[in-house]
Amino acid sequence: MEQGPIITVLHGDSLPDDDLMAPVRERAVVRYTDASGLSTALRGAEVLFVYDFLTRALPGAWHAADALRWIHMGSTGVDPVMFPEVRAGDVVVTNTRGLFDSAIAEYVLGQILCFAKDLPGSLRLQQSGVWRHRESERISGATVLVVGTGPIGRAIARLLRAAGMTVRAVGRRARAEDPDFGTVGVDLHAELPGADYVVAIAPLTPQTRNMFDAKAFAAMKPHARFVNVGRGELVVTDDLVAALRDGSIAGAALDVVDPEPLPARHPLWQLPNVMITPHNSGDFMGWRGGIVTAFVENFENWIADRPLDNVVDKELGYVPG
Q: Does residue 7 sit in helix, strand or coil?
């Protein structure tokens, strides 16, 4: 017979590291399941650890969550579990805030450098055996608008400032003299015309869904580049394709897209001014272990009846700053 609180771990193709999970197994019953067995594994469980944080399986299994008190997401974004029953209920939601900040910031800097130095173009010339002198852009002095002022946005801002870029931001609350962003505005369309690069890292909420539409892209400079490391659903994809085709913007680096995975025949694959990665901007070597460690540390709080770390405001859809 199972003894102790039941912890359900929702995984995908890989399981959490068994050694790292040892402190949880010592004090609780751990049920591992993939999406197909989630309904069964949720019955009687007090905690759900969403190790497969891209899953969309929970709404369909929610009817079986008869004892659930806490959901921990193995990611920063919590939109996969922010369906109405969770928002309206008493289940606490936490996330893995902080783990991916530096890695995503490095990714953003790398993509900006790829645009400025046209590294993809150099690689194409190399593969063709062509020696052709070209000039490149400077990023020092260029202006970047960071859309989203959470910890990842701050890490991006600090790194880009260190590289000599001028940083501004758009967030929920206007302010001046922010230590990382300088000036924070609240009107996206008013801020877009001043940016050479626009970085989307806002959480996905009803307010941010489709915020980058035809009107937003039309407000950007023709030479501006768009970098999305937030969620694909922040963008109206057809409007982005149109803006890239007609020259409203000069390029896009997309770690997240809508839909995911991007279909093989989607026009984004064919556009020469687009760089696409498969939602891995934060996936540094060792990140899976970091997810488990963050959950185990929060489990220590839960089992000792201490306040949990990184509690999500379910009305806002993220951990308040």
A: strand
